[in-house]
Write a structure and sequence with these properties.
heterodimer; A: mainly alpha; two-stranded antiparallel ribbon; globular; B: mainly alpha; two-stranded antiparallel sheet; 26 helices; 4 strands; 72% helix
């Protein structure tokens, strides 16, 4: 499958990165902001449309890598430029390309200084993120993985809030520290796995027990920081609070998924025995994360912190589902990843809508928004209900499947996880009643309802929230083959009866 | 298939059209919503007659979630139980829609209100039509969501959204149990479809589960009992049974039409519907049945004692609803599912009527809800008064009104259920007496005696009878409250419903004759009315004297047995306190401090170590010499 005679994955990675070339002349050109915004929107939209080609061209029943590309890159170390995707990465790539135009739209009025630089940073970030999801060479993966950090570091550090330097340093150093363990694991796997960095080849090896456990711990440290799992989560609220809206959306919706993707792509298939060995450990952290995140969310007065902590809770479901090693658990976890991307992304966009008008995120400063902004309030209510897992909307399906997968083998854990669903209602409704309900007291700011850029950003997400909730099967069927294959890879160490 | 599909689809279309284009309707939303719901009602009647003698209808709409072996679809099932419930729900909904046109006339959220009650009606219909537990659960929570937004309709008033939050969260607690029940059902039976569960039931009667895992290794419980109880937790929330009931009276903060439709006639009965629907599961577990019966009896009794002393007209009716729901749950618990559903149906009509009539009174008095500031309205409200009287007579179980037939059936079924049944019967009769008393206390306070309201309400006009769009629904419901019970007995509704429900065991012969039982329960109602007349029917000091004599009891009743205060103390405050404490002390205080500590350690460590690097060759030589000395001594020591 090629696009303009360029292989599609290469196109998707380098189109936004090279697209920045058109934006460079606009740096330091006052009055050009509007052009820059439209150009960025055009690039991200084209990128999204092209990525849909992955859906059309993919073979749903095929479990291996598709759209593969493979070229020599650094021959002496056997490092190759190889790309490939399966159902899991296709879904995540499309989620990424879908959310980027929304991020451009939400920055329309939110970003006023250095617009060209901002858009350039965003586009580079997009290319790197697609690269992470499609790299099939471990070093290439690591390059993209680290390359993502720099634009995000700049987005928070340059366009962030008052305490942005502390937040961005914390984010950068914390993730970098985790990534170093990833690098160690990559090099170790290279030597143990037959001197190759090819991800598919590394999956087929049999590693010793001690080696598996050590490598698992190293990978775990890298991915747990990214997810983030309890107790590695404290960088997240700080980063979210300081990041501009687009930064928060990318961080929550896409970058958090990289950690979970790492577990699915590397830990499980490469180190099946270790994954089995560490399940109790992962379960414990996941359950603590679910309950802890929810309790923390309840205590927050800052909208973004509240949503950030709710992410910790929701991502707990993801890691829980991944490590139950059955169809419902893993497919539920993947669905939860997509749903969290859509819903939390939308919630951060909503916070952006409010922040652009009021320049505050404190719950105490709002109240009665429903009167002033009825359409926006309706949207916020729907996304909040999606977040608290109302059946009929998207998140319920993922959470239910995770709970079902968990309940089948670890009943008690599912019971504890389900309390997260009750707590989610508490903090979301508490937030809604303080923001949306109540008497609207006119303050110094004006509260016009949503403008068309905000509409354009939120409406597609609203459609997805309802559509995935009502008809999740098309999405699930993209995953079946890859998930079955993945479970097959873990099968060696797991009793077969509990697989399906 | 199409006509049956249209029953839920029509209200949904109403929701979509009115909901999406509400700014353009400007108070004309009813032109879409009302005809659609009436059409839905007529189609429900068609479905009722189509299934009357024929087999039940069942078709799959689409495959909803498929993952591994798990497969669940959205389907439509219309059997006798569903059909008759559909008729009641769409009838009350249609009349409420009509009533809303008059009641909510000048409300700024008029069209939004129509959008949401249409969505509610759609969800309720789908709840009734579902053929599996997960589909039931979607709409179970969807009606809860509609209830939430409708309670918060006047969202600027704090009590409204506080009540809305309370309703949603308490139901969530119940749904936590319900969800676990669904998960356990699936892991036990491998399916969530009712018919398949029932078919596999005999194979799993003796399955056991250790509920507390490793903590009670010896005592294993029956899986069926655990499933039945977990699902019942959901019903306790939805049908406002003790201990998850306090949301229902508070939900009266919402507009009156939704109190009638959602919080009396339809949504709150979903729990009873669910139990009746799953009767084979409950029958298989005597333990679960007795829990159900006791919960219902206790709720019926407690709610009645609270209703005795309330002052808010809607709260009185709300507690009577809770009490009647208790009767229905109790009926299910003694295995008289048919009687429970029969009472559910008649109650839907007369309680809907009572609420709408109460709304008419409130409307007439420009928002006044305190019965102590009413009185003498019987002369003015020539339609509201008689219809509310009919509703109260039906509620009090006076023949030939509807409530008599169904309540009496529950009581006599209870009496036949052995020794424990006698206890339930006594509780039921005592509750019936209290019910008649508080119903007529309300009637006397509102419609007879001196006028205790001020003539210049904030509309600046005297109390008046409500307009025709309000009185027509009252008259229709009053007619139904008169005939529904008689119709049910005449056409053997119990036999009609028996097709879809099973009973746990053969019923023994009562020691008292049917007519004696009937006489006693009717007497209870009459005595209750007489006491109400003595105390409130004429000017009397008696109520004050009694209140003073039994002050602790009076306080206890007036403060609703202090449930709200208890929950606030035990659940609400500790949770909030805990979350703040953990955030400040642990999340920030320990975890994040540790993270920043690592960073500081590196920074200060680096700063400290930098000093060592002096660049002076003498220092380095000294350290080298010391190091060499140290290592050599260590080597010699070990050797």
């Amino acid at each position: 499958m090629t696009f303009l005679s360029v292989p599609i994955l290469t196109f998707l990675i380098f189109f936004p990165i090279l697209g920045t070339a058109i934006l460079f002349p606009f740096m330091k050109m006052p009055g050009s902001e509007k052009t820059v915004r439209w150009l960025a929107l055009a690039i991200t939209t084209v990128e999204f449309l092209v990525s849909l080609d992955l859906l059309l061209g993919m073979h749903q029943g095929m479990s291996g890598m598709q759209f593969s590309e493979d070229h020599a890159w650094i021959p002496f170390a056997n490092i190759r430029y190889s790309l490939g995707v399966d159902g899991i990465s296709i879904v995540l790539i499309i989620m990424t390309t879908l959310l980027m135009p929304m991020c451009v739209l939400t920055s329309w009025h939110g970003i006023k200084s250095r617009v060209a630089e901002f858009m350039i940073t965003m586009l580079v970030l997009e290319g790197a993120m697609v690269g992470v999801f499609s790299a099939m060479d471990f070093i290439l993966f690591y390059v993209f993985w680290e390359a993502m950090l720099i634009p995000m570091y700049l987005i928070i550090g340059v366009w962030g809030g008052p305490n942005r330097l502390y937040a961005t340093m914390k984010f950068f150093l914390y993730t970098l520290a985790g990534s170093l363990f990833l690098l160690i694991a990559i090099i170790a796997l290279y030597f143990e796995g037959g001197h190759t960095f090819n991800i598919v080849q590394l999956m087929g090896q049999h590693y010793g027990k001690t080696f598996q456990n050590l490598a698992f711990v190293a990978l775990f440290l890298a991915f747990a920081v990214k997810v983030p799992m309890f107790p590695f989560h404290t960088w997240l609220p700080d980063a979210h609070v300081e990041a501009p809206t687009a930064g928060s959306v990318i961080l929550a919706s896409i970058m958090l998924k990289m950690g979970a993707y790492g577990f699915l792509r590397f830990s499980l298939p490469m180190l099946p025995q270790a994954s089995q060995y560490f399940t109790t450990f992962i379960f414990t952290l996941s359950l603590i994360g679910i309950v802890w995140g929810a309790l923390m969310a309840l205590a927050q007065e800052d909208l973004k912190k509240l949503i950030a902590y709710s992410s910790v809770s929701h991502m707990g479901f993801v890691t829980l589902g991944i490590f139950v090693f059955n169809s419902q658990g893993i497919e539920g976890a993947l669905l939860q990843m997509v749903n969290h991307g859509v819903t939390t992304g939308a919630l951060f966009l909503c916070v952006g809508v409010l922040y652009d008008r009021t320049h505050t995120r404190q719950l105490g400063d709002y109240g009665g928004i429903a009167k002033a902004m009825p359409v926006f309030s309706t949207m916020l209510v729907i996304f909040s209900l999606s977040s608290l897992g109302l059946p009929g909307l998207n998140s319920f399906v993922g959470e239910f499947l995770v709970l079902l997968g968990t309940f089948r083998t670890h009943t008690a854990l599912a019971v504890i996880a389900a309390t997260g669903v009750v707590l989610a209602a508490l903090y979301m409704l508490y937030m809604l009643s303080r923001v949306v309900w109540g008497v609207y007291t006119p303050k110094s700011w004006a509260l016009p309802d949503m403008n068309r850029y905000e509409w354009a950003a939120l409406l597609p997400l609203l459609v997805l929230v309802v559509w995935i909730g009502v008809q999740p099967n098309p999405l699930l069927s993209l995953l079946h083959a890859s998930v079955t294959h993945l479970i097959g890879q873990v099968q060696g160490s797991v009793p077969i009866a509990s697989i399906r | 298939m199409l006509p049956y599909l249209l029953i839920p689809v029509l209200p949904f279309v109403g929701f979509l059209v009115v909901g999406m284009f509400w700014p353009y309707f400007r108070g004309k939303g009813h032109w879409i919503a009302v005809p659609l719901i009436f059409a839905s009602f007529f189609l429900s009647l068609k479905a009722f007659f189509d299934t009357l003698n024929g087999p039940s209808l069942h078709f799959v709409l689409y495959d909803w979630i498929h993952s591994g072996h798990f497969d669940v679809s959205i389907s439509i099932l219309i059997d006798h139980l569903t059909a008759i419930m559909l008729v009641m729900v769409t009838a009350v909904s249609a009349l409420t829609h009509l009533y809303t046109v008059g009641y909510m006339k000048d409300d700024s959220g008029y069209d939004r209100f129509f959008a949401y009650i249409s969505l509610f009606t759609f969800s309720m219909i789908m709840l009734l039509m579902s053929d599996n537990l997960l589909e039931l659960f979607i709409f179970w929570e969807a009606v809860g969501f509609c209830s939430y937004v409708l309670i918060a309709h006047w969202y600027e008033r704090k009590p409204s959204w506080v009540a809305a939050n309370k309703a949603f969260i308490m139901n969530r607690v119940g749904d936590f149990g319900f969800l676990l029940g669904i998960l356990l059902t699936y892991t036990t039976f491998g399916t969530l479809t009712y018919s398949e569960i029932f078919a596999k039931l005999p194979q799993h009667l003796h399955d056991t589960i250790r509920v507390l895992g490793a903590f009670n290794g010896l005592h294993a419980s029956s899986v069926i009992t655990v499933i039945a109880l977990l699902l019942f937790v959901g019903a306790v929330g939805k049908s406002a049974q003790i201990p998850l009931h306090p949301w229902l009276p508070d939900a009266m903060e919402g507009p009156t039409p939704i109190s009638a439709l959602i919080h009396a006639a339809t949504m709150v009965t979903a729990g009873i519907f669910m139990i009746a629907r799953l009767s084979p599961i409950y029958n298989a577990s005597p333990t679960a049945l007795s829990v159900v019966a006791w919960t219902g009896a206790l709720t019926a009794f407690v709610a009645a004692t609270i209703a005795l002393t309330q002052r808010d007209i809607k709260k009185i009716v709300a507690y009577s609803t809770m009490s009647q729901l208790g009767y229905m749950v109790m009926a299910c618990g003694i295995g008289a599912y048919g009687a429970g559903i029969f009472h559910l149906l008649t109650h839907g009509f007369f309680k809907g009527l009572l609420f709408l009539a109460a709304g008419s009174v409130i409307h007439a008095l420009a928002g006044e809800q305190d019965v102590f500031r009413m009185g003498g309205l019987g002369k003015i409200m020539k339609i509201t008064f008689p219809t509310m009287l009919i509703g109260s007579l039906a509620l009090s179980g006076i023949p030939p009104f509807a409530g008599f037939y169904s309540k009496d059936l529950i009581l006599s079924m209870a009496f036949q259920d052995g020794m424990i049944g006698h206890v339930f019967w006594v509780i039921g009769v005592a509750t019936a007496l209290m019910t008649a008393f508080y119903s007529f206390r309300l009637i006397f306070m509102v419609f007879s005696g001196k006028e205790r309201f001020s003539h210049d309400g904030h509309h600046g006009h005297a109390p008046h009878e409500s307009p025709v769009v309000i009185t027509i629904p009252l008259l229709c419901l009053a007619a139904l409250a008169v005939v529904a019970g008689w119709l049910g007995e005449r056409y053997d509704i119990i036999g009609y419903l028996a097709q879809d429900m099973t009973i746990p065991h053969a019923v023994g012969k009562p020691e008292l004759s049917e007519s004696a039982l009937k006489t006693i329960s009717v007497m209870a109602g009459v005595v209750g009315i007489l006491i109400a007349f003595v105390m409130y029917g004429r000017p009397s000091e008696l109520p004050q004297i009694l209140a003073r004599m039994f002050q602790p009891l009076f306080r206890f009743s007036q403060n609703k047995w202090y449930f709200d205060e208890l929950y606030d103390l035990v659940f609400v405050r500790p949770t909030i306190f805990l979350s703040r404490l953990l955030w400040v002390e642990v999340d920030k205080g320990v975890i994040d401090t540790a993270v920043n500590g690592v960073a500081s350690f590196c920074r200060f460590g680096g700063a400290a170590m930098r000093r060592i690097q002096t660049g002076q060759i003498q220092n380095y030589a000294l350290v080298m010499a010391l190091g060499l000395f140290g290592m050599v001594s260590l080597y010699l020591l070990i050797k």
